[in-house]
Every structure is written in structure tokens, then in C-alpha cells.
């Protein structure tokens, strides 16, 4: 049944693994893209960390709040920066709802995550925002 907790968790799981057709099917059948899991993460944040552009783009188009922070105050942007997903970084930074200066619970920004992992191009993209 769409909207029940198990289906919402399935959406996060499918987004985490970049299973685009499953994500699309779940959303089209009523799963909420804004649903959060026990870590307070949204499917969009999992898709940003995974790097599958189709899944991410689909969820971004459906997501009303791409800056949603999880329990560690991390956002989709910080996960994309950590994993060096350049196209996803660019998509997020073009979205007027995304704030590149947001800090997690330890004061780290998306730029910090990019630099910490040696992702020079990701850092450059963030600095151009």
C-alpha cells in the first residue's frame, strides 16, 4: 500500500542503490519523496550519495526541499561533494533552494567534504556558486 512505512523505506533503499525504475514506480504509486528514514535522510540524499543521475534527477524534480538535513545536519549537497558526483553537485547548485553554506552538526560544509576527500573539481564547482 502506498504511503505505508515499509514502502517509504523501500523508496529510500531503491534510491540508495540507484534503482531508477523502482524509484519511479514507487513514486508514481504514491510514495512520498520527502519521507525520512530513521537517520532522518530523504531518498534524494541517498541518490546524491549513490551518484545515479537518472534517479537523482527524477527525485530532485519531485522534491520540494532539496536542502533537507538528516540527523547529522548533512544535506544531499554534502553527500554529493563527499562522493565527487560532479553532475549532481552542478544540478543541486543550480537549484535556488540549495544553500552551499549549510553546515552539518560538526560545522562542516559541502566544500569541506569535497576538500577532505581530495575532490578538487568538486571543490571548484562549489566555490563557483
TrEMBL record:
The UniProt entry, under SUPFAM superfamilies, shows: Ankyrin repeat (SSF48403)
The reply to whether Manganese figures as a keyword in the UniProt entry is no
- Superkingdom, according to UniProt? Eukaryota
Q: Do the record's keywords include Repeat? A: yes
Indicate the segments annotated as coiled coil, or none if absent. Answer: none
List the Gene3D superfamilies hit by this protein, alphabetically.
Ankyrin repeat-containing domain (1.25.40.20)
- Report the InterPro entries cross-referenced here: Ankyrin_rpt (IPR002110), Ankyrin_rpt-contain_sf (IPR036770), Dendritic_Spine_Reg/Scaffold (IPR050889)
Sorted keywords for this record are:
ANK repeat, Repeat
What Pfam families does the database record attribute to this sequence?
Ank, Ank_2
Q: What's the protein name?
A: Uncharacterized protein
Native source organism of the sequence? Aplosporella prunicola CBS 121167
Species classification: Eukaryota, Fungi, Dikarya, Ascomycota, Pezizomycotina
